[in-house]
Amino acid sequence: MTTTGRYRSAYVAGMLAAGLFAVACAGGAGGEEAPSSRRAVPVVVDEEPLWRTPANSPQYERSRLHGDSLLILGNTDDPLTQRLAALDIATGAVRWQLDTRNLLPGDGHARLDQQRDGLRPLAVGDSVLVPFTEWCGSNTCVDDPSDTAGYGVMALSARDGTIRWKTSLIPKSEGPSAHHQLLTVDENIALSVNRCCEVDDPATVRIVATRVSDGTTAWESTGSWPQFVADGNVLGVTSNRMPVPGQGGDYLGKGSTVVALDAGTGARKWDLSKRYESSTVSLTLGDVAVIDTLDERTFTTFVVDASTGEEIAELGKSVDGLPCVSDEANLIACRYPGGDTLVTFDVARRKVSVSRPADSLPPLSGAWHGHVLASNRIVDPGGNTVASFPPTSSVSAMSDDYVVVYTADRQEYAVHRVSR
Predict the structure, then answer these.
(1) Number of neighbours of residue 412 by Cβ within 10 angstroms
(2) Is 312 a residue whose pLDDT tops 90?
(3) Are 364 and 322 a contacting pair, CB within 8 Å?
């Protein structure tokens, strides 16, 4: 699943600013009214979960389904140490887990790097890409005299967590003030930025595209913060501060503009600087991207062609931008504050639809193949509830076969099977 939303992460609710909204409707953004009763097809989920994590486990931050594994990232009993774990989705058995405090098995020098905004692993194919560090700031790290790797990126096997390849991007000679951030990935390349100190000027950072297959460098560039890879294009922004990786849609200040690079070469293809005062990219799906543009005090959310930047459809206007999610197949869904309106975009048909659900929708946390996750509910594109869970729960991930539910008051994950 892919989610966006200004000033929030996928699981933090209630942080959307209130304001006046112009709803995308048949007479405005070209959308057609979608009756909320049109697509109500229940999702049958087994009431009894297949398994649960132990109650009051360490606070988990994020989870995602990847193949037959559930990847969970969160804190350990030590709040300064993060843990990445891969669990068998059918049984809950731990396949492997790694802590940022400890050296990686089979390496002896490297450990996971929490980075400035926390550890953010990227799953692709049969690998999980993670940032690593060999900068020794504690007695848990063994110094490497070769001076070849201060920070970098490595690929772990999604099956057993073993290291497949390891690429140094910043040598230790540059010192601990240098910073590396792993930002985004597709099936071909992983995008990282290297910068000195806490300077967030994109003109001074080095973008490195690393081949997912073997860890070799495909190209390098400067001048923007890469955020997404879509249809052979790297979409990012120019800004005087780095966007939060994986969040998308964060307002980056006046003058920020969306930039597209060729994913094969790193050459700049287009930008939106001449069209809009400011713009940011929120998410991508297939060959399109969702962008927010700012004109004085009004944000407008558009769908644009990822290869050209040309507008395809307008999704709505707001004072804070629309939080949107994609189902990783064909559907983009955006929620208006108050939850009384859901606007969707069909990528294949290039069609905007607007629904007004009978029950107000809570903030969206994701989507999967035509289903939208809204806190403790699963809804269809018309906003109809097709499955629900207790009020203190939130649906954190979904696949064709499983639904993952997190209960905040018990700090517990439960995995339910989707019945055929």
Answers:
(1) 18
(2) yes
(3) no
Q: What is the pLDDT of residue 33?
A: 56
In angstroms, rounded to a whole number, what is the distance separating the alpha carbons of residues 286 and 312?
14
Amino acid at 98: L
Q: Give, in order, the Cα–Cα distances in Å from 141 to each of 76, 133, 338, 345.
A: 19, 9, 49, 49
* Sign (positive or negative) of CA dihedral 241, 246, 251, 257: positive
C-alpha atoms less than 13 angstroms from C-alpha of 54 in its C-beta half-sphere: 5
Contacts 24+ apart (CB under 8 A), 289-297: 289/228, 289/230, 289/235, 289/258, 290/4, 290/249, 290/315, 290/324, 290/332, 290/334, 291/258, 292/6, 292/249, 292/251, 292/321, 292/322, 294/251, 294/254
Phi then psi dihedrals of residue 174, to 5 deg: -80, -10
With a pLDDT cut of 90, the percent of the chain lying above it is 52
Report the pLDDT value the prediction gives residue 49, as an integer from 0 to 100.
95
Q: Tokens 């790290």 — which residue?
A: 141
Summarize pLDDT for 48-84 with one digit per residue, the tens.
Answer: 999 998 765 666 677 889 999 999 888 777 777 888 9
150: pLDDT strictly greater than 90:
no
Question: How crowded is residue 91: how many other Cβ atoms within 10 Å of its Cβ?
Answer: 11
